């Protein structure tokens, strides 16, 4: 009996659409699947039309497994190949949604997401690298994203972030 090759769990894409089916954020990882923007938009339109009224979690569309979840005015999708395990893809979706929910302080709606789009994009990058699933624990993802946002150079921080950082440094200097 030969050794089994280790498998890498992968996804084909991660998409967030608004209530009208318009793209808020999308990352496709496989250049052989949905390689042009036109194909992606057509796929997203079909995906939204099939899921915006349904209450399932998993569908097959164009021989791809699509897991999805809606909240207020956003639809979260994780797309995988038909050979991939639905539970793995669903765990990535849960991780994405729970991480975004924690980052946005449970205010998961389009406006809040757009205001924190950079952090949400970083969250997706922490979950998945080039289509390979790297992490599926929301607590780990939120911690990593929080560490990265603290390392922003002073010139790129908002005034609120600068004051918060100064307050923390003052507090620690007084406690010494």
Q: Short summary of the structure?
A:
By secondary structure, this protein is an alpha+beta fold.
Q: What coarse outline follows from CA principal-axis ratios?
A: elongated
Biggest sheet statistics? 5 strands, antiparallel
Strand content: 15-25%
Note poorly predicted spans.
none
Order of helix and strand elements from N to C terminus: EEHEEEHHHEEHH
Fraction of residues in H or I helices = 40-55%
Mean pLDDT: 84
How are the strands of the biggest sheet laid out side by side?
Answer: 2-1-5-4-3
Q: How large is the count of helical segments?
A: 6
Rg, alpha carbons = 19 Å
Query: How many angstroms does the end-to-end distance come to?
Result: 63 Å
Would you tell me the structural class of the helices and strands?
A: alpha+beta
β-strand number: 7
Key features of this structure:
alpha+beta; 6 helices; single chain; 176 residues; five-stranded antiparallel beta sheet
How does this structure look, described?
- With 176 residues, the chain is an alpha+beta fold.
- It has six helices and seven strands, in the order E-E-H-E-E-E-H-H-H-E-E-H-H.
- The chain has helices at 37-51, 86-103, 110-115, 117-127, 138-150, 159-175; strands at residues 13-18, 23-28, 58-61, 64-71, 74-81, 128-129, 132-133.
- The strands form two sheets. It has a five-stranded antiparallel β-sheet, with helices on both faces. A two-stranded antiparallel sheet has the order 6-7.
- The longest helix is centred in the middle third of the chain and has 18 residues, at 86-103.
- The chain is elongated, with a radius of gyration of 19 Å.
- The mean pLDDT is 84.
């Amino acid at each position: 009996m030969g050794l089994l090759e280790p498998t890498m769990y992968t996804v084909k894409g991660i998409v967030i659409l608004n209530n009208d089916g318009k793209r808020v954020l999308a990352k496709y990882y496989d250049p052989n699947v949905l390689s042009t923007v036109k194909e992606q938009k057509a796929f997203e339109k079909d995906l939204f039309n099939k899921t915006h009224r349904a209450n399932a979690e998993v569908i097959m569309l164009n021989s791809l497994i699509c897991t999805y979840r809606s909240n207020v005015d956003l639809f979260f999708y994780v797309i995988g190949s038909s050979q991939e395990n639905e539970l793995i893809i669903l765990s990535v979706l849960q991780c994405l949604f729970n991480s975004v929910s924690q980052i946005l302080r449970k205010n998961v709606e389009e406006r809040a997401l757009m205001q924190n789009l950079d952090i949400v994009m970083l969250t997706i990058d922490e979950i998945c690298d080039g289509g390979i699933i790297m992490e599926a624990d929301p607590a780990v993802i939120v911690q990593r994203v929080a560490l990265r946002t603290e390392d922003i150079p002073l010139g790129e921080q908002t005034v609120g972030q600068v004051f918060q950082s100064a307050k923390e440094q003052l507090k620690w200097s007084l406690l010494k």
